[in-house]
Each structure stands twice: as structure tokens, then as C-alpha cells.
Automatic annotation (TrEMBL):
Coiled coil: none
Protein name: 5-formyltetrahydrofolate cyclo-ligase
Known cofactor(s): Mg(2+)
Enzyme class: ligase
Alphabetized Pfam families for the sequence: 5-FTHF_cyc-lig (PF01812)
Top-level lineage group: Bacteria
Catalytic reaction list: (6S)-5-formyl-5,6,7,8-tetrahydrofolate + ATP = (6R)-5,10-methenyltetrahydrofolate + ADP + phosphate
Keywords per UniProt: ATP-binding, Magnesium, Metal-binding, Nucleotide-binding
Taxonomic source organism: Streptomyces capitiformicae
UniProt: substrate binding residues: 33, 38
Single biological process term from Gene Ontology: folic acid-containing compound biosynthetic process
E.C. code: 6.3.3.2
Length: 180
């Protein structure tokens, strides 16, 4: 995709996501900063902040679990290299809230490579968000689980393991598809 295509896709995705009732009423959203070829998320994060939503962003720990920090605008992010420099993420600077901070979120925006017709999400294989989902379940927390993807990443079926859980919705530039 050209840079213009990426920009238009990012804007469309943010607009679709902001129309979700779950996000319209959210006080706290756990999200992420897109990396690589993932659909951009900064426009959405900034729009949520402008609404007064507390936006939590992950901090990757050495064991691939996630800690959380508050997003206070693009200037509150630092480039952090992980895996011996193989992966660079934008992570929030400032106070760490602990891995359990995600349990207070009204909505959790999950990254993914694909979502299938059943709402099953295919991640990158590191298990970070599998831990998040397990933590939510153990805590009895039930936030809306939403994946942000390109239209072509909504597929018929993805591989599934016993611990995998379906998401509630996938948002693409062309629309929203709900599950569960």
C-alpha cells in the first residue's frame, strides 16, 4: 500500500472504531501502538484521549507478558528494542501500572494477523495477548474485545488452540463485524 493508502485506511479505521457503542461509552481502553504493516492506531488513540478516555498501552516484559502505562499523546511514547534488537515497539514512558491494570479496561483493542468467521483471532505467536485474555478471565473482567484489521485479514478460518478465545468484534476500514 502507498503511504496515502495507509493514511486513508488509518483514518477510516479510526472513524469506524469511534462509532462503536463500546468505545463511545468507555472510560478506559487498553490499546496498542501499531507496528510494521499493522493498521495505524495513533489517530484512534488520540481521538479516544480527546474524548477523555484513559488509554492504556502495553509495555513488553522480558517473559513476553505485558505491563501497562498511560498514553498521554505521541510525545509520551519511546522506541524500545526487544529481542536483541529484532523488534522495536513504541511504549509509554512513565509509571508502570502492572500487568493487572488491563482488568479495569472497558474495551481491549487487540492486535492480530487475522480474525475468522467465528471471531477467533490469530496473533503473532508470542503469547502476550493470550496472557492478557487469561488474566481478564481469571479476574472475572468482561471488557469488549475488539481487533483492528485490514479487510483482507478477515478470513474463513484461522488455526485455533485450546486456550484461544473469540473476540467480540473486528473493525476494518469498510465496517464492523460482530461475533459472540
Amino acid at each position: 500500500m502507498t503511504q496515502d493508502d495507509v493514511r486513508k485506511t488509518t483514518e477510516a479505521l479510526a472513524a469506524r472504531a469511534l462509532d462503536l457503542p463500546e468505545l463511545a461509552h468507555a472510560r478506559s481502553v487498553a490499546a496498542y501502538v501499531a507496528v510494521g504493516s499493522e493498521p495505524g492506531t495513533l489517530a484512534l488513540l488520540d481521538a479516544l484521549r480527546a474524548r477523555g478516555v484513559r488509554v492504556l498501552l502495553p509495555v513488553l516484559l522480558p517473559d513476553n507478558d505485558l505491563d501497562w502505562g498511560v498514553y498521554d499523546g505521541e510525545g509520551s511514547l519511546a522506541r524500545v528494542q526487544h529481542g536483541g534488537g529484532r523488534m522495536t515497539l513504541l511504549e509509554p514512558v512513565g509509571e508502570r501500572l502492572g500487568p493487572d491494570a488491563v482488568t479495569g479496561a472497558d474495551v481491549v483493542l487487540l492486535p492480530g494477523l487475522a480474525v475468522d468467521a467465528r471471531g477467533m483471532r490469530l496473533g503473532r505467536g508470542g503469547g502476550s495477548y493470550d496472557r492478557v485474555l487469561a488474566r481478564l478471565e481469571r479476574a472475572g473482567a468482561d471488557p469488549a474485545l475488539v481487533v483492528l484489521l485490514y479487510d483482507s485479514e478477515v478470513v474463513e478460518r484461522v488455526p485455533e488452540e485450546e486456550h484461544d478465545r473469540p473476540v467480540h468484534a473486528v473493525v476494518t476500514p469498510s465496517g464492523v463485524r460482530r461475533f459472540v
